[in-house]
Amino acid sequence: MLEIIRNENKNIIGCCEWYIVDRYGHMDDKGSHVWICEVEINPSERGNGLLKRFVKIITEKAPQAEAGYFQRHKYNNRVRMYSKRKWLKIFK
User: Fold this and answer.
1) Helix, strand, or coil (residue 22)
2) Residue 41's domain is classified under what CATH number?
3) Per the count of CB atoms within 10 A, which of 47, 67, 82, 92 is most buried?
4) Among 32, 30, 40, 35, CA closest to 18
5) Residue 55 burial by CB count (10 A; 0-12/13-18/19+): exposed, middle or buried?
6) Which residues pair with residue 12 across a beta bridge?
7) pLDDT tens per residue, range 75-87
8) CA 79, CA 12: separation in Å to the nearest integer?
């Protein structure tokens, strides 16, 4: 899925591509995990709570998800995984 957040002028300020997958990483509409494929945020909008908004959108659209994970490109492509409970606690 592709989520796009626009400002009041209808300009794109952030977008997030994500998929529902099973515990092995295979796409599955009834899967228990969320793979965050790509997140892009306009540099002028960083720190304005867009990640929190993306997490809220994803958890509402995939309430069955137990965890979410993503790859950190700036840290040698390290994969980070968060349980749904921790994810919601971080982005409260």
Assistant:
1) coil
2) 3.40.630.30
3) 82
4) 35
5) buried
6) 6
7) 888 888 888 888 7
8) 27
Helical residues (DSSP H) of 1-92, grouped into ranges: 50-61, 84-90
Terminal Cα-to-Cα distance of the chain (whole angstroms): 23
Other Cβ atoms closer than 10 A to 87: 19
Residue 79, domain extent = 2-90
Residue 18: per-residue pLDDT: 97
pLDDT tens digits, one per residue of 23-48: 888 999 899 999 999 999 999 988 88
How many domains is the chain built from? 1
* pTM recorded for the entire structure: 0.84
